[in-house]
Amino acid sequence: MSLSRSWKYCALTALALSAGLVACSGDSEPGCTPVTILPGNPTSVPAPGWYSSDTRSNGTVSMTTEFGTPSGLTCDAVKLTTGEATGTPLQDKAQLFTFAAAGTALSSITSVTYWGYRSSSSPAIVADPTAPHPATISLNVQVSGASVPGNFATLVYEPYTQSGGQGAIMNDTWQQWDASGGVWWSTKNGQANLLTWAAMKALYPDASVIGYGFNLGSNNPNLIVAGDGLTFGGTTTDF
Predict the structure, then answer these.
(1) What is the pLDDT of residue 110?
(2) Domain span including residue 95
(3) Per-position DSSP letters for the chain, written without gaps between them
(4) 107-160 residue pLDDT tens
(5) In whole angstroms, how far apart are CA 189 and each of 130, 143, 153, 184?
(6) How far apart are CA 41 and CA 5, in angstroms?
(7) I need a labelling partner for 223 at 20 to 30 A (CA). Which of 55, 61, 142, 175 fits?
(8) Which residues of 155-177 are buried (b: 16+ CB within 10 A; e: fewer)?
(9) What values do phi and psi take at 16, rounded to 5?
(10) Nearest to 40 by CA among 30, 51, 28
(11) How far is the C-alpha of 112 from the C-alpha of 124, rounded, in Å?
């Protein structure tokens, strides 16, 4: 894996290189440099770095060590929060996106995984299926192409929509989510139309990636979540 794909720089050890980790940060790990979260979106793509993108209202995105890191990872994790959201619909939202892979064919992306963490300071997870879903950190991929209505769509992976081997969302625990082995929805076909990753790629056969990253959507007030170890195609980011 080429180090030119790194979006942050650190003194990578031989072990890190063999594991394919190409980005690292942290304010407490020797050899790591805290990531700079760039505001908004880049003026053109592809572009290196990580952007706050559509973070708005009381939403926040930052780097933290307060939750530790998943097994095998070092440095920081990404923390996303929403506050006491107001408005109709509720407006709080937090994101961390990279646009370094812009132009990559969606069809070429076979592996998408990440680690997520949901703080117990968030609203309680309720077993009642009629209750609001237990939202946590999700993954968004923005795509464009002639097969995409309006030439733009966001593909969304949400842990609460998964079943079977993906497991249930837990508090105060790092959980790895295999997004390429789960189901997604597109902003152009709606949340009720869940598709496997393979089916989503087939739906938009000529699509190319614009950007991808972590998302904490609106209408989810008072959530505190974190993410780390994001693999997208051939690139894994250890924040």
Answers:
(1) 97
(2) 3-237
(3) --GGG-SS-----HHHHHTTB-----SSSTT--PPPEESS--SSSSEEEEE-TT-BTT-EEEEESTT---TT--S-EEEEE--S--TTTT--BEEEEEETTTT-BGGG---EEEEEEE-TTSSPP---TTSPP----EEEEEEE-TTSGGG-EEEEE-GGG--GGG----SSS-EEEEGGGSEEEETTT-TT--EEHHHHHHHSTT-EEEEEEEEE-SS-TT-EEEEEEEEETTEEE--
(4) 999 999 999 999 999 988 877 666 777 889 999 999 999 999 999 999 999 999
(5) 23, 14, 9, 11
(6) 19
(7) 142
(8) bbbbbebbeeebeebeeeebbeb
(9) -65, -40
(10) 51
(11) 28
Query: C-alpha dihedral over 107, 110, 111, 112, to 10 degrees?
Result: 30
Q: Which two tokens stand for residue 51?
A: 């952007």
Q: 175-185: per-residue pLDDT in tens?
A: 999 999 999 99
Phi and psi, residue 106, nearest 5°: -60, -35
Amino acid (1-letter code) at residue 115: W
Q: Enumerate residues 6+ apart whose C-beta is below 8 A from 134.
A: 118, 125, 126, 160, 169
Q: In what order do the strands lie in the sheet with 183-186?
A: 37-38, 47-51, 94-99, 208-216, 138-144, 153-157, 183-186, 195-196
Instruction: Considering only residues 12 and 70, tell me which one the structure prediction assigns the higher pLDDT.
Output: 70
Q: What is the CATH number of the domain that holds 38?
A: 2.60.120.260
